[in-house]
Design goal:
By secondary structure, the protein is α+β, with helices and mostly antiparallel strands. It has two domains: 122 residues, Alpha-Beta Barrel (N-terminal domain of MutM-like DNA repair proteins), CATH 3.20.190.10; 130 residues, Helicase, Ruva Protein, domain 3. The chain is built from ten helices and ten strands. α1 crosses α8, α4 crosses α8 and α7 crosses α8. The longest helix is centred in the last third of the chain and has 21 residues. It is globular and about 60 Å long. The two termini are 33 Å apart. It binds a DNA duplex (13 and 13 nucleotides) through α7.
Length: 274
DNA sequence: TCTTTATGGTGAG
DNA sequence: TCACCCTAAAGAT
């Protein structure tokens, strides 16, 4: 399940077994990709990279495997020849001497050359990576002040991969709650303090999710809720998917709304409209 | 068995 | 903003 943190974790796991290894066999199950199997077989993987919510695998023969999981794709890593117990549809398989990297369900798969990678419609549009080490919260603040973005609602900005790459629907809700900002607000109407808080929350929440495996609640709160016996699904987020439940900060019932054709969750007290 | 939802994305108007 | 694409799983009937 794929926002930036999930994709980065998947790419890191793939890198552990594919980086610098020869892929002895490569298979694609979609007829339009059949011919690429033999083309990639025998090449060596240079590295596996997450870009936004896509995974790009670099081969030493100048080709790249692009895959986007959308809502449903999933990578598995197994010992070579072993398959996960799943009813999903296998779409791509990369076999090294020791391991198999298996992509299920995803339909957005492409094999690209250098030029194809450089001009790819999704990749070319990505803004700065929220999870990249060299991105500072001041970079995000500058992005928020950019006239191209400053007039738009936060609800729209935080789903736009050109604004910041790697953020999706749960991070949108969690970041805006953490910053105490209503999703209908616009950067140009925010003061210096709010802008700074939002920029920091953008990186803090996204990076926390990467570190924890999807938990956006602060560590102390998450542990406390866990000790109370709540399941992973119930303790991981502050507002996302918690409609009707009490806000951890003020007890107000969390509200669920639809913005940009996606569900968004917010605390009407902690995130006032203006 | 049918319908809806989902942590995503595109293109037309 | 909306219709639509994609696949899997949950929910409704």
């Amino acid at each position: 399940m794929p926002e930036g943190p999930e994709i980065w974790r998947a790419a890191a796991r793939l890198g552990e077994v594919l980086d610098d290894r020869v892929v002895e066999a490569v298979e694609f199950t979609q007829p339009r990709l059949h011919n690429y199997g033999p083309v990639l077989s025998g090449s060596r993987v240079r590295r596996v990279e997450a870009r936004g919510k896509a995974v790009v695998t670099h081969f030493d023969n100048g080709l790249y495997l692009y895959s986007h999981n959308q809502l449903y794709g999933r990578w598995y890593v197994r010992k070579r020849g072993q398959l996960p117990a799943t009813a999903r549809t296998l779409r791509a398989a990369l076999h090294t001497a020791a391991h198999s990297a298996l992509l299920y369900s995803a339909s957005d798969i492409e094999v690209l050359d250098e030029a194809g990678l450089a001009h790819h419609s999704y990749l070319a549009r990505l803004g700065p990576e929220a999870l990249a080490q060299n991105v500072h919260w001041r970079d995000i603040a500058a992005r928020l002040r950019d006239p191209a973005f400053a007039g738009r609602r936060l609800s729209s900005l935080y789903l736009d991969q050109h604004f910041v790459a790697g953020i999706g629907n749960y991070l949108r809700s969690e970041i805006l709650f953490d910053a105490g900002l209503h999703p209908a607000r616009r950067p140009r109407d925010l003061g210096r303090g709010d802008l700074g808080a939002l920029a920091r929350s953008t990186l803090v929440i996204t990076r926390r999710s990467l570190r924890t495996g999807g938990v956006t609640n602060p560590d102390a709160r998450a542990s406390k809720l866990k000790r109370q016996g709540l399941s992973y699904g119930a303790y991981r987020h502050a507002v996302f998917a918690r409609a009707g439940e009490p806000c951890y900060a003020c007890d107000t019932a969390i509200r669920r709304e639809t913005m940009g054709s996606r569900r968004i969750y917010l605390c009407p007290t902690c995130q006032p409209e203006a």
